[in-house]
Amino acid sequence: MSSKPVICIGAALVDELFHATEELLLATTTDATVTKTSGGVARNIAHQLALLDVPVQLITVLGNDGDGDWIKQVCGAAGVALDATITKDGLSGKYTGILKPDGSLFTAFLTNAANHLITPKHLEANRDLLLTASYLLADANISIETGEWLVRFSRETGIPFILEPVSVPPARKFKNSDLQGLYLVTPNEDELPVLCHGQSSMISHQIEELFNRGVQHIWLHNGKNGSAMYTQEKVVTLHAPNIEVVDCTGAGDGSLSGFLLGKHLGWADLDCMRLAHSLSAEILQVNGAIATHLNQETLLSRVDHYFPKA
Fold this sequence. Notes:
Elements: E1 6-9, E2 13-20, E3 32-39, H1 41-51, E4 56-59, E5 61-63, H2 66-78, E6 86-88, E7 94-99, E8 105-111, H3 120-125, H4 127-130, E9 135-139, H5 144-157, E10 161-164, H6 168-172, E11 184-185, H7 191-194, H8 203-212, E12 217-221, E13 227-230, E14 235-238, H9 251-264, H10 269-284, H11 296-306
Parallel strand pairs: 1-4, 1-9, 2-7, 5-6, 9-10, 10-11, 11-12
Antiparallel strand pairs: 2-3, 7-8, 12-13, 13-14
């Protein structure tokens, strides 16, 4: 088990989720319930890891407003260290999601996010902190320059770097990037093609392109159909547990948190994936992006529930 922190780099936002209670119709009023939580992909993963007793640092950008103070408070209470986080003048970033009655996303808005302030210069200034990491993880909300700096830093230091695509628009930025030595990228079926500059619509060709560009592991998420971990040598597939979905927010972030907990514990990829799918299933059954009802011990006990040993 590693005592080194996972360092998460990217977005921290206020999440406002409007959950429609009836069918959404355009250009009219729909009844909804609303929840406010702290979000952002990198922040969600950092928060979940901290709740699972994995040491974690978050490098993000917050405003010097009430929302920024609140997010700092939430992170601190969870055990997330913010040693290299940037505080800017002005408003903190906000994610406003509109959810259908079944909990799936209808549309969303992102405002005031300032991830461009996480520059290579800022990371270079915090090199000593980065050198303490067991894993580096960034969401694709960071700039291309910052992503490529992290890939180079990972190559130089041997510290594995993981890129989480987030969604199609931020993922698309990296289609021509130098990914030589990238430890892991975690796309779904929409994000995989936009990470590639080739025109093929075949998943096998897209996977091959990423391998040729130097990516070591590609973890392809297929929602309710489970996921597949591709390496040059083999493919490991795993089904998703059959559950009743309450809210889809944060399921992908939780999956990566579960995988990193497995790596922290020294587990092999398949066991890490079982842990990932178990945590994702737990998050899908609650409102919000974080499984606050779980600690490491309770999550580990849930793995046998979702994936009984033969």
